[in-house]
Design a protein that fits this description.
Two copies of one chain form a homodimer. Helix content of chain A is about 45%, strand content about 15%. By secondary structure, the first copy, chain A, is of the alpha/beta class. A six-stranded parallel sheet of chain A has the order 2-1-3-4-5-11, with helices on one face. A six-stranded mixed sheet of chain A has the order 7-6-8-9-10-12, sandwiched between helices. In chain A, helix 1 crosses helix 2 (about 15-25) and helix 8 packs parallel to helix 9 (about 195-210). Chain A is elongated, with a radius of gyration of 25 Å. The interface of A and B includes residues 55, 60 and 87 of A. Strand 2 (about 95-100) of chain A pairs antiparallel with strand 2 (about 95-100) of chain B, so a sheet runs across the interface. Chain A binds a DNA duplex (30 and 30 nucleotides) through helix 2 and helix 4.
DNA sequence: AATCATTATGTTACCGGTAACATATTTAAA
DNA sequence: TTTAAATATGTTACCGGTAACATAATGATT
């Protein structure tokens, strides 16, 4: 029923190896023969069987993207943008992208390794990994090609693309300080993400540098989502010295906090200022427009794809550690 | 180097067929033997080769999701939510999801068919197809399993999940009318999407039913995105009888229009009211909060996945045409 | 004890390509 | 003209599983 390479070969009166050569463009085939074969292929609408090719060549031409499941939609804007970046990379066109939703805490230590061992993938990209994920180390030991997005670990077994979170966070803090805000609190996001750690460090360092008050209670860990930030914001605003500004580790966190602030009858930025991080679409649409530090999410994805390809094809060997710039986007919230 | 079923078989002193039976759970294997094999599998961390399995069984256990490329991010919130729905379907867990970005107008007529013929996929889901896409018909003729999301075509060769766009649009229109708005214009979205057509029909019918003014110039075709709507809104507001309300065929369209309206110094809803469609995240965050008609995007995705599975496994045969409900979400914009 | 159904396991062939090696033909170089 | 290099094609084996059929062992039924 379905056409195989053998059918094409028979019709062209050659061996299937010659057809295979025409298909892959490797090896030598006489021009006329190649054209004859190509015409037959076109005429019969033959498409090679990807699976058979993969089995034989030991390359699936598929890249996997690991996305962690969340209680809500597993693809928020952050993931969507990074993902779009991966897909948009023109060199990646010959590869297919498979989405692999994974439970953060489920599965055994070899979960990623097992995914790699199924032979279905040539490489993996991780979006939003955490530093305490033991499954990652098991994979790293195996030598299977993978790249982490927005995760920093200067190890020879890890490839990553990250943004300059520390510098970006300093930008945010100095912006607040320049505007005269002194009592600055930090909604940290999940501190198992290296992003959050870097931003936290910058928060502390910058406060110290400018000789400003630092208070244990002023660092509030949250998840990287709106609802959790909404809940955690209340305690911040009720404490003794009410802060005058909030540095939120992400825009979603900032937006959750803003909702709570508004509900408490306070205004932004008059009663309390706020600055976010990421610059997602929402940031420029919300009222007041959110001042934030932009991460180039799309580029992050593009780079991750490119690095993975270079590693798979052997173009690059050593561990690749790439950092992209962050920029301050001034709007209305501070 | 890499472990194969043969290695397991040898170690367990059985044929590889017995191991295969243990892996698939099909056929009969003595309890003790099965346990012995399973222990060895666990001990050696063996993972079956997915590719080899696919070639032999003629099932890839992969579903493809066709997403159309756009000038901006290919995954907007609409796509992200539908996609999340597909992935979240618990029964789909045994399947993997592949993302296939496609140029709307590129490729030949058999583009989808060719994708199907690579044998890499067991079925396809299309997000945001258009009625004038000839590539779809070529695929339909082949009998390859596929499901369309948010696309309506009552043909025996098409399976789809759609929302009740017509009813939803009537809800929107009647809401405006009940509030006393009489001069209502329509930003239609792309009329090659059946969604837009249904909403357009409802717009016309409802105007007629309530005996309201209908004006050719009051229907403005747009793309389903913010920027295009922003551009097209100007002409609407400059025409002779300025409308008092806008029915936008999607939230992104509404948001683009709102931006333009605000820039022209008009206020919403006092000078002009607006209602959207979809209920994306932005709708409830923007100022004023956007009144809209909610489409259950996540459920749309879940259903699409389920229907596709049922078709692949033979649980359902005939064409599946499913409609989900839409609901009015009242907020501040009208 | 004989017969049949069920369970347990093995054998063989094949899925549809490509790698690796072999061979024939053509072209270039000595 | 001879020889080496490059081009053109074919042959064989194999990638790692599963389907289909065959056979052996066990259990149930008469």
């Amino acid at each position: 029923m379905k056409l195989t390479i053998q059918d094409i070969a028979k019709k062209a009166e050659v061996s299937k190896m010659t057809v295979s050569r025409v298909l892959s463009g490797k090896g030598h085939v006489k021009k006329e023969t190649a054209e004859r074969i190509q015409n037959i292929i076109r005429e019969l609408n033959y498409e090679p069987n990807f699976i058979a090719r993969s089995l034989s060549s030991k390359q699936s031409m598929i890249l996997g993207v690991i996305i962690f499941k969340t209680p809500t939609s597993i693809i928020d804007e952050y993931v969507a943008q990074v993902f779009s970046g991966i897909v948009d990379n023109s060199e990646i066109q010959q590869y297919r992208i498979m989405v692999l939703p994974v439970d953060r805490d489920g599965g055994d230590e070899n979960e990623y390794l097992k995914i790699a061992r199924t032979n279905m993938l040539d490489g993996l990209i991780f979006i939003r990994s955490r530093i305490n994920d033991p499954k990652l180390d098991a994979l790293a030991k195996s030598g299977f090609p993978f790249v982490l997005v927005n995760f920093k670990k200067f190890s020879p077994h890890y490839n990553f693309v990250d943004t300059e979170n520390y510098k970006g966070a300093v930008l945010a803090m100095e912006h607040l300080i320049n505007r005269g805000y002194k009592k600055i609190v930090f909604l940290s996001g999940n501190l198992f993400e290296t992003n959050a750690r870097d931003r936290f460090k910058a928060y502390q360092d910058t406060l110290k540098k400018y000789d400003l008050e630092y208070n244990e209670g002023w660092v509030v860990p949250t998840e990287f989502d709106e609802d959790d930030a909404y809940l955690k914001t209340e305690q911040l605003l009720k404490c003794d010295h009410r802060p005058t500004a909030i540095f939120a580790a992400s825009d979603y966190i900032a937006i959750g906090a803003m909702r709570r602030i508004r509900e408490m009858g306070l205004t932004i930025p008059n009663d309390i200022a706020i600055i976010g991080f990421d610059d997602i679409e929402l940031a420029s649409h919300i009222q007041p427009k959110l001042t934030t530090v932009r991460q180039p999410l799309h580029e992050l994805g593009q780079n991750a794809g490119q690095i993975l390809l270079d590693i798979i094809t052997g173009k690059r060997k050593g561990p690749v550690h790439k950092m992209l710039k962050t920029t301050l986007i001034e709007r209305e919230s501070c």
